[in-house]
Structures are given as C-alpha cells and as structure tokens.
Design goal:
The chain is α+β, with helices and mostly antiparallel strands. The chain has helices at residues 48-55, 97-107, 112-125, 142-163, and strands spanning 6-17, 20-32, 63-68, 71-72. 34% of the residues lie in helices and 20% in strands. Strand 1 (6-17) and strand 2 form a beta hairpin.
C-alpha cells in the first residue's frame, strides 16, 4: 500500500479559555493520497485555520501525529512540501507584485537579475504576466493578491527544493 501524501492520526488541539480548555480539533484522523484535492469547509470558528496551522507547524498540537510522505512533521514549522497563503495575503504594501514574489530570494542573496527572471516565471505561471507587475501591492485586490501570494509560495517552495 502506498504511503499517504498527508496523514493525520488522532490530532488534538485545544485553546485555554478561563479555567477550561476549548477543544478545536478533537481526535482527527485522515489520510490524503498523493495528488488528491481536499477542501476543508465549515462555519467560522470551527477549526479550519487551526488545522492548517497545525499541519504547517505554525502552532503545536496537544497530541497526535502528522505525517507528510511518511515523515513525522508534527511541530516542525514549514518545510518541504508545505506552505500557507494566509487570508490577509501578508504582502509588503510598498513593494511591487514582482518585488513581493522576489522577497524570499532577495533575503537569500540571489542576484537581482536572477531574482527578476525567476519571479517573472512564477508571475507567468499564475497568469499575471504583463499585468500589474509595476504597481505596488497596496491597490491590488482579490484574485490578483491571491495570485501574487501563490506565486511567492510556489517560488519559495521550489527554490527550497532545489537547494536541499
């Protein structure tokens, strides 16, 4: 039997509220095969974002296990095969779309010409080629913001894969 791409085993997470703990994720187990698409839906406050933060290692679980390609990743922040685009997009409003996408490479010291070439590849990948790359992130909206965030996530994930 093939290893699941992502597997959660008896995952639990509670948050303190006064003298009690409020369970948000309670004894959750699931197995997602490679290349399967999964939607997590539910009302506000039901634990969707908490679950994603647990998977990405941004918050620790109370108990349980999280496996990615058979490797236990519980409590490991970010890393290969994971990334999260937040609802607020977390872009730098003073940077251009391309500048936001290039940021991770800039921090790593990648030369400007190489950063530009790589960023333009990802801008093209998400359908933004020749579209708003000279405007700052501040006036951008909706799908444009999400595409800039997704391009940045893809670039940084693929770049990390190539140097590991």
């Amino acid at each position: 039997m093939a290893t699941a791409k992502l597997e959660l085993r008896n995952l639990k997470k509670s948050f303190p509220r006064g003298k009690e703990d409020i369970p948000v994720v309670h004894d959750m187990s699931l197995s997602i095969p490679n290349l399967e698409f999964l939607a997590i839906i539910g009302p506000s406050g039901c634990g969707k974002s908490t679950l994603l933060r647990l998977i990405d290692g941004l918050i620790p679980g109370d108990s349980g296990e999280i496996f990615l390609d058979g490797v236990d990743i519980a409590g490991v922040v970010g890393g290969r095969g994971r990334g999260m685009v937040f609802q607020g997009f977390d872009l730098f409003p003073w940077r251009t779309s391309r500048g936001n996408i290039e940021f991770g490479l800039e921090v790593q010291g990648t030369p400007a010409a190489e950063r530009k070439e790589i960023a333009l590849h990802y801008i093209n990948l998400v359908g933004l080629a020749g579209f708003l790359v000279c405007l700052t992130a501040l006036p951008l909206f909706g799908k444009i913001l999400s595409n800039v965030s997704i391009a940045s996530l893809q670039l940084n994930y693929n770049w990390a894969q190539s140097v590991v």
